[in-house]
C-alpha cells in the first residue's frame, strides 16, 4: 500500500478529482497549504504598493492506494494537474505500513 501525495494549483482540483474517479479512486484528502519551490514566490501590486508573496497557495492531495495502482494514480494526477507553467507542483509516494477502517475493523488493502 502507498500514499500518493501531490501538491497542485488550487484551480486544478476538480480536474484531478475527476481523473482519479475515472480510474477507480474514490477517496482522497485535500488540505490547503502554502509554500514555494524553485520559483521562490513572486511580487504583486496591491493599492499601488508592490509587495512580495513568499508563500504561494497550493492544495495538498493525499490518496491511499494499493501498490499496483500507483503508476495509474501518478499518471492521472500528472496529466490533469499540468498547465505547463512554473509551479504546477510535485508528486511524492511513500509506503503505508498498516491501514484500519475504524467502522468495520477491516485492515490493509480492504480498508482502503
Give me a quick take on this structure.
The chain has a single domain, classed as Alpha-Beta Plaits (2-Layer Sandwich), CATH 3.30.70. It is 20% helix and 36% strand. Strand 3 and strand 4 form a beta hairpin.
Determine the N-to-C terminus distance.
9 Å
What general form does the structure show? elongated
Q: What strand order characterises the main sheet? A: 2-5-1-6
The total count of helices amounts to: 2
Stretches where pLDDT is under 50 for at least 5 consecutive residues are none
As a whole number of angstroms, the C-alpha radius of gyration is 17 Å
Structurally, the number of domains stands at 1
Name of the CATH first level: Alpha Beta
| Class derived from helix and strand content | alpha+beta
CATH topology: Alpha-Beta Plaits
Number of E-state strands: 6
* Helix and strand pattern: EHEEEEHE
Strand content: 35-45%
The major sheet is characterized as: 4 strands, antiparallel
